[in-house]
Design a protein that fits this description.
two-stranded antiparallel ribbon, 2% strand, mainly alpha, globular, 733 residues, disordered N terminus, single chain
């Protein structure tokens, strides 16, 4: 009896110190379970192709839908079990492998299922929906009305997707093996795998039953906000009370204003951009909330109504569009010459570019986020990173999951070095051979890669502990805009090499943590994700090429009919960024020749803010909540706005607080058993109904006409309030 208690105590000490992980992740493993099966390859490649096709297709729509790997995760189980019952078990010899294999090595197992889901994850670009670099093709062909060769476009997409894998492999021991680097988003996946495969011996409703009930309810409910009653997506009741007040609608609109009181009774609204609020830890939600409140309810109102900063009242309070000084939309085509560069004479004639106040301040807080990321990680994690770099095995006792993973052969480091060097060589060749199409010189590529490799570690640490990922897009755009102004495609290429390669590295590390929890052989994880990335990027480009050539006036909102769904909202923001940072350049926007030079002070403020928190922690070490203040997350909280809107944030914060504070605190047993299951069920039901609605009704543009299908009913929220500014549909002051 004493021995049993001693063993139990030892296992408890070895388990993860993170409570959520200890609740969720199994500490058992069977290394003999087969993973390289025909079922895994067939279902994995099929799901990768299907998701990459659908996500690229949906990305051009007014209401873009991202179909996540959750849908495949659910659908693959019955198909896999059917294949296990139907395929022959006879073994045959494969000469190249030098051993006997079977199409059906036994029951469909959880590890096969995980690798199929990794393939599917590549199919939705690890959270982006489609490959980020496809945006370059879209803006060249649809917005600038220029051309790029298919092969050059393919090389851009593939190299930007693959490049981050090299340095991600070098960072695994820092952000995958440590127990406190727990990657909250992976726990939803772990929970769902266990729900689908393990027998549930707990009291009450089984998690499997709960999942299918949640999925069914989500599936049935989404027909209302998704088609019959779209106003539920943003219930902006302030606009309904004051239907003729521009100011009230600016304050109350969840889609085009500050969203005061707005809420979305729609899971696609709640989980958009910031992902599921049930996954993020409460302290991260609080950091986002404080940052959001600071920007949206203090900084913006003070600057707009209090000081009229940058003539803010001449433009909408919330918009990603670019404007003239008179409040009219800026005609970008007039300032681009036949060399695809800035026409300085035409720009001088048309005048400076202006932004909405919210858009401008978003860039300012983006500057602060980048600076604070460096100081925050240096102060709070620098000592630990250095210790692990010097003697990782001596300074940290591995938890049970790290010990179990040592049974599998690790990935040789030369795999990562080879992949990194090979991808760089191809990217260098692209910049030299297709220099007129990509505009990026070889030294620009090298600089982008250096930035990405430098920021990957601190941003991975933030993601692994808070479930929020600060982006590099602003700093990459800013630097290249100063170094090489007037070349929009050079700027966006620099951005995707600097930003996207870092993002891919973080995604790769996140998937490795999922494999770590699920005890998947590391080499299998690496190869599946690499192959899935190549396949998905190729399909993304094929679909984009087809859509851009077959849909008339795609992305051209001024030429499309009012009922057309092909408005490309994400690409519109991408295009605006190429104009601000690449074509016109930061010197003429944020420098001494521009309207917004004061925003550069945000860099200094961002760098200083974590120092104040760190000093407070040192002065009051017993106050536990001080180190939970995460300045990069707080300052970067509104980085998704636009295209994210206020109702996305308010809904996400409210739901996240309910589940990860109140339910976690007062109904911990329920939270432990059902929280992540509920998140997965809501995602899956929404995805299935959204697909059904599109193919049943959306293809034919079948719609209904009544008040509840007319949006949020805040038509005046986009109006300017300066005297004498005339905009169609708006009152003139």
């Amino acid at each position: 009896m004493d021995t049993s208690l001693e063993v139990s105590k030892e296992e408890e000490e070895e388990n993860s110190p993170v409570e959520q992980v200890a609740f969720t992740v199994s500490t058992e493993d069977d290394p003999t379970i087969p993973v390289w099966t025909f079922r895994m390859w067939f279902l994995g490649l099929l799901s990768c192709v299907l998701l990459s096709f659908l996500n690229q297709f949906f990305s051009y729509r007014k209401e873009p839908l991202i179909i996540t790997q959750i849908s495949v995760q659910v659908a693959a189980l019955p198909i896999g079990r059917f294949m296990a019952s139907a395929l022959p078990t006879r073994k045959f010899r494969v000469p190249l492998l030098g051993k006997e294999v079977s199409l059906n090595p036994g029951p469909f197992n959880m590890k096969e299922h995980v690798l199929i889901t990794i393939f599917a994850s590549a199919g939705y670009a690890f959270g982006n929906g489609s490959a980020y670099a496809v945006g370059i093709v879209n803006i060249i062909k649809a917005f600038y009305r220029r051309s790029i060769s298919f092969f050059a476009a393919w090389l851009i997409i593939i190299t930007t997707q693959v490049l981050g894998y090299g340095w991600a492999g070098l960072l695994r021991k820092y952000v995958v093996e440590p127990a406190h680097m727990w990657w909250p988003s992976t726990l939803v996946q772990v929970t769902l795998f266990r729900v689908l495969h393990e027998k549930d011996h707990g009291k009450g409703m089984s998690r499997n039953t709960f999942f299918f009930i949640a999925m069914t309810c989500s599936f049935c409910y989404y027909v209302f906000p998704g088609y019959l009653f779209s106003t539920l997506s943003s219930v902006s009741w302030v606009c309904w009370i004051w239907p003729h007040s521009v100011t009230a609608q600016q304050i109350g609109s969840g889609m085009n204003g500050l969203g005061l009181g707005a809420f979305g009774f729609d899971w696609s609204t709640i989980a958009a951009f910031l992902f599921s609020p049930l996954v993020s830890p409460f302290f991260a939600i609080m950091n986002v909330m404080f940052g959001y409140v600071l920007v949206v309810y203090f900084a913006v109102p003070l600057a707009y109504w209090g000081t009229n900063m940058y003539n803010a009242k001449s433009f909408p309070i919330f918009s990603s569009d670019l404007f003239t000084a008179q409040g009219q939309n800026y005609n970008i085509s007039q300032i681009v010459n036949n060399k695809f560069e800035l026409d300085l004479a035409a720009y001088s004639q048309n005048g400076q570019i202006h932004m909405s106040l919210f858009f401008a301040l978003t860039y300012g807080f983006g500057f602060a986020t980048i600076a604070s990321t460096i100081t925050h990680v240096s102060l709070f994690y620098g000592k630990e990173i250095w210790q692990r770099a010097v003697a990782a095995s001596k300074t940290n006792r591995p938890d049970i999951h790290t010990k179990l993973m040592r049974k599998y052969p690790d990935i040789p480091q030369w795999w990562f070095y080879t992949l990194l060097c090979g991808t760089l060589a191809v990217a260098f060749a692209l910049c030299e051979v297709y220099k007129e199409e990509v505009q990026l010189p070889w030294w620009g590529l090298l600089f982008a890669c250096a930035l990405a490799s430098f920021f990957t570690l601190p941003i991975s640490i933030i993601t692994a502990t808070t479930n929020q990922t600060p982006g590099l897009n602003i700093i990459t755009e800013y630097l290249m805009g100063y170094i090489l102004p007037g070349k929009p495609i050079a700027n966006v290429c620099f951005k995707v090499y600097g930003y996207m390669s870092m993002s891919q590295a973080v995604s790769f590390l996140s998937d490795f943590k999922l494999g770590h929890y699920m005890k998947i052989p590391p080499r299998s994880m690496f190869l599946v994700q690499f192959i899935g990335t190549i396949v998905a990027g190729t399909v993304n480009l094929g679909v984009a090429w087809w859509m851009l050539g077959s849909v008339k006036d795609i992305c051209q909102t001024d030429l499309l009919s009012a009922s057309s769904p092909w408005t490309c909202p994400g690409d519109h923001v991408f295009f605006d960024a190429s104009v601000i940072w690449g074509l016109v350049g930061p010197k003429r926007i944020f420098g001494n020749l521009g309207v917004y030079p004061q925003l550069n002070w945000f860099f200094l403020g961002g760098a200083a803010a974590p120092v104040l928190v760190w000093l407070a922690h040192k002065a009051f070490p017993k106050v536990k909540w001080i180190p939970l203040i995460n300045i990069p997350v707080m300052l970067g909280s509104t980085a998704y706005m636009p295209p994210a809107t206020a109702v996305n944030y308010t809904s996400w914060i409210i739901v996240g607080t309910i589940f990860n504070h109140f339910i976690f605190k007062y109904r911990k047993a329920w939270w432990q058993r059902y929280n992540y299951v509920l998140s997965a069920g809501l995602d899956a039901g929404l995805a299935f109904m959204a697909i059904l609605l599109y193919f049943a009704l959306g293809l034919n543009n079948t719609s209904i006409n009544w008040w509840g299908a007319g949006g949020e009913h805040c038509p005046l929220a986009t109006c300017p309030t300066a005297k004498g500014v005339k905009v169609d549909g708006c009152p003139v002051y």
